[in-house]
């Protein structure tokens, strides 16, 4: 009788173990799913373009074209951004063209036009209206979609050290899309520094900002 009881107990225990094993197998967890992190967009680094004298350029990519002829040319031409320069000869440059005036416009400043000329060209204007008539002074463009401030001071790192003999009159433009200009106003010409990140469809005398200096030329 004891043998029969032991056999029955062993049979029940074996059945319980089988059921437990099956239950545990059914409770296996699915493998962990590792979420793919979203790529972070790297900030666009600013570059610098400078022009001075009659006029010589150092483009965003380090090219060194020179423009000796008179005329009006795009310094920067990109989607929504237009910066133009007027080059004219002076008796101080033996007839070679120097930058006499710079105009900034486009959708990025909501259609306004900022014009800065040499000192003998008269006051700085916004949409044809004189501004910054006192020195030093500042002017707010009051843009709806961003900040736009123009300052007129004696501060600024010279583009051309040869101009250090003159008193500085510098127009600073802090504009949307990371665009910053310093315009050094001398008696009859300008020196200019532009700092900005690359822009869509960029071209002009400051180059196309593609990392290659070899294609920054005076050709249209």
Notable features of this structure?
globular; single chain; 13 strands; mainly beta; 220 residues; seven-stranded antiparallel beta sheet
- Give the mean pLDDT: 85
Query: What is the count of helical runs?
Result: 1
Distance between the termini: 111 Å
* Major β-sheet annotation: 7 strands, antiparallel
Structural class: mainly beta
What percent of the residues sit in helical stretches (DSSP H or I)? Answer: 10-25%
Beta fraction: 25-35%
Oligomer: single chain
Order of helices and strands: HEEEEEEEEEEEEE
Number of beta strands: 13
Rg, Å, rounded: 34 Å
Q: Spatial order of the strands in the main sheet?
A: 2-1-13-12-11-10-9
Low-confidence spans: 19-25
Anisotropy-based shape: globular
């Amino acid at each position: 009788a004891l043998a029969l009881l032991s056999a029955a107990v062993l049979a029940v225990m074996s059945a319980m173990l089988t059921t437990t094993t099956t239950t545990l197998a059914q409770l296996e967890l699915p493998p962990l799913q590792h979420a793919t992190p979203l790529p972070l967009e790297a900030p666009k680094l600013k570059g610098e373009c400078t022009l001075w004298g009659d006029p010589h350029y150092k483009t965003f990519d380090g090219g060194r074209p020179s423009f000796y002829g008179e005329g009006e040319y795009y310094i920067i031409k990109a989607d929504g951004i237009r910066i133009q320069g007027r080059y004219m000869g002076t008796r101080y440059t033996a007839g070679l063209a120097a930058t006499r005036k710079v105009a900034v416009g486009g959708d990025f400043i909501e259609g306004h036009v900022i014009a800065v000329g040499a000192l003998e060209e008269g006051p700085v204007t916004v949409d044809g209206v004189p501004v910054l008539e006192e020195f030093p002074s500042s002017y707010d463009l009051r843009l709806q979609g961003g900040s736009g401030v123009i300052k007129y001071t004696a501060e600024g790192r010279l583009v051309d050290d040869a101009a250090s003999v003159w008193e500085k009159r510098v127009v600073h433009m802090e504009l949307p899309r990371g665009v910053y200009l310093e315009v050094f106003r001398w008696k009859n010409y300008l020196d200019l520094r532009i700092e900005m990140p690359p822009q869509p469809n960029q071209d002009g005398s400051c180059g196309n900002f593609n990392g290659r200096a070899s294609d920054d030329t005076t050709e249209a």
